[in-house]
Amino acid sequence: MIAHHDRIAAIFDRPRAEKRAALILYLMAGDPDLATTALIIDAVTAAGADLIELGIPYGDPLADGPTIAAAGQRGLAAGATLDATLALAAAASERRAAPLIFFTYVNPISQYGPERFARAAAAAGALGAIVPDVPLEELDEFAPAFHAYGLGIPLLVAPTTPPARAAAIAARTDGFTYVVSRLGVTGARREPDVAWIGSAVERLRQHATKPIAVGFGISTPEHVRRVAGLADGVIVGSALIDAIAGRTGAAAADAAHAYVSMLRAAL
Fold first, then answer.
1. What pTM value is reported for the model?
2. C-beta of residue 187 within 8 angstroms of C-beta of residue 238
3. Residues in Cβ contact with 199 at an 8 Å cutoff, skipping those fewer than 6 apart
């Protein structure tokens, strides 16, 4: 059996064979409600998502911009607890939705218990979790439990990450290296700095054996096209949440499908 963290890297195999970047989409569990999230997961799967990052709502989200923070608040209000989010993932996995990875923070995993979380995440069919606030030095608190259940932890490289540290992160990451395309929190307000992304990806390529995906601030088909020319994967989050804003049920799923289809066509 392939270890799950190799399965994250394997997400990039089909896009590579099709000579395109992988399309990775971020959704917040429970935004606007759990039933709608399930429909949106299926809609973005049908629209061609290669990987879904499923956010676990959390009260103190450090990396999240206003759009995702507000989505998290809606998710919490809708009852998207960690257990409810795990159940959502398990049901999606049974429906053969796109592969799924959790997006969460150190605190919820620590409180739940890393071993218990890893066991539950693996049982739900997830490939692992992105934990943006776990520093390299504290990775060993989580990584052994995750790896024991075949789960991966993709790590982030920020614009402020010194080159030597970025190389160390690329060496330790599971599945892919997540390059944060600009300073500040997530959001779709400013243009991605394509020149900076290009040089950052090129520098990382000297050390990285695993794929490189770029996220934060990518919102239009043109952004997707430009970033896809530089990296192995393109990550879109806030802009997808904006695309479904104010809708529930089938209307939200249709909006998500239309938006993701447009991004997918740009690849």
1. 0.94
2. yes
3. none
Is residue 64 part of the annotated active site? The answer reads yes
* Residues 128-163: tens digit of each pLDDT: 999 999 999 999 999 999 999 999 999 999 988 999
| Structure tokens that stand for 184 in this block | 């500040």
Residue 266 scores a pLDDT above 80: yes
Provide the phi-psi class of 96: left if phi over 0, else alpha when psi is between -120 and 50, else beta.
left
What is the arithmetic mean of pLDDT over 120-130? Answer: 98
Strand pairing category for 100-103 and 155-157: unpaired
Determine which one of 64, 140, 202, 254 is catalytic.
Answer: 64
Residue 197: what residue type?
I
- Residue 44: its H or E element: helix 34-46
C-alpha 139/C-alpha 174 separation (Å) is: 12
Could you say which of 42, 53, 174, 232 is catalytic?
Answer: 53
Cis bond upstream, residue 99 (ω within 30): no
Which residues are bridge partners to 213 per DSSP?
178, 233
Domain boundaries 4-266, corresponding CATH code: 3.20.20.70
Prior bond of 32 cis (ω within 30°): yes
Is 94 in the active site?
A: no
Q: In one letter, which amino acid is 41?
A: I
3-state secondary structure (DSSP) of residue 203: helix
Predicted confidence (pLDDT) per residue in 232-261, tens digit: 999 999 999 999 999 999 999 999 999 999
In the chain, where the domains are located: 4-266
Q: Two tokens at 117?
A: 């979380």
DSSP 140: G
